[in-house]
Amino acid sequence: MDIIPAIEKEILSQPKRIVITMHTNPDADALGASLGLAAFLKKKNHHVSVIAPTAYPEFLDWLPGIDEVIIYEKNNQQLSFELIASADIIFCVDFAILNRINELASAVKQTKATKIVIDHHLDTEDFADVMLWNPKATAAAELVYELIEALGETDCIDKSIAECLYVGILTDTVSFKTPNTTPHVHRIVANLLEFGVEVAKINKLVYDSNSLNKLKFLSFILSNRLTVLPDYKTAYIAIKSADAKQFNLNTGDTEGLVNYALSIKGIVLAALIKEKYDRVCISLRSVGDFAVNTFAKEYFHGGGHKNAAGGMTNLSLEETINIFETLVKNNQDLLN
Ligand code: 5GP
Ligand code: MN
User: Fold this and answer.
1) Cα–Cα distance list, 88 to 8, 10, 183 (Å)
2) Fewest CB atoms within 10 A around its CB: which of 20, 82, 257, 291?
3) pTM reported for the whole predicted model
4) Residue 131 three-state SS
């Protein structure tokens, strides 16, 4: 199917009931791309609802349109199911496999709505009618920009939409540092800046708005919870539930921590292993050829990108650490 004419026919012909949903534990790309798309579609007179399966990080509470996000897990189950069941179109943003939206998966699968995926993750599942999917894209926000451009609608972009898309690209490229940060991406960002994006303001909001408490937590973690395995070019941070409690952490407060482990000279593989309720979540990052998405998929029920992936286990923190260390040791050849 030729994607753009198909979307054009669906979304520009007449006002529709549209649901935009994103992956659990939404990050700045999932939210920015979804809210940028939502604001664009509203300008085209559609009725748009944005559903996040779980809560978003506090440091993103300034995003234009964030107040309208329906958080499924926060007593919005019935509303979410109703909106999905009655939607004409569902956009799945920043994910392409349904297990990324937990209990919303079956509702999305069953609904008669046209399903449009906008994603850049490597793992995909065959459930959508239209796939706007490019694993080489830095961010779902990049794909939303390209969609608006391909529809010939860049005139609809305003400062708020541009800031939503900018923050997605900014964070998914780790401030334009990942290897997929091409001239093309910089051109898109340059175009977004033309719409008035306040770069300094947004970078301050995203990266330099720490609470003192969060900095103390960081100091504690780096002093007490960081393990470096130099023989395997690996470093990991393991966080206990008690640590999060002690420092009164909010949603999103551990976001980016894994990058401290990865920032150590010579480190190729980094992990953040975090106890969360009855499970253990793992965030993986790598530099170069070591593919963490396969690691996440094979051993931690997860997935993601080549250099950034995540997953979980139902084991204890200690058991998860043991498995991780064993895997690292078994992969010594690839890590060196
Ligand atoms: P993070 O470590 O920041 O949570 O996630 C890194 C990347 O891996 C993100 O692109 C995220 O969407 C993806 N990811 C994280 N957890 C999972 C998971 O459980 N399953 C899959 N398929 N992808 C994940
Ligand atoms: Mn993304």
Assistant:
1) 14, 9, 36
2) 82
3) 0.95
4) strand
1 has pLDDT over 60: no
Domains parsed from the chain with CATH numbers: 3-206 (3.90.1640.10), 212-335 (3.10.310.30)
Ligand 1 atom closest to the Cα of residue 255 is 3
CA dist., res. 251 & res. 259, Å (int) = 18
Q: 309 CA to middle of ligand 1, Å?
A: 5
Q: C-alpha angle 136/57/167, rounded to 5°?
A: 40
Instruction: Write out residues with Cβ below 6 Å of ligand 1.
Output: 23, 97, 100, 121, 123, 283, 302-305, 308-312
Give all strands of the β-sheet with 234-239 in edge-to-edge order. 226-229, 234-239, 269-276, 279-286, 308-313, 303-304
In this structure, the dihedral spanned by the alpha carbons of residues 91, 96, 101 and 105, taken in order and rounded to 10 degrees, is: 80
Confidence of residue 283 (pLDDT cuts 50, 70, 90): very high
The 10s digit of each residue's pLDDT in 127-154 is 999 999 999 999 999 999 999 999 999 9
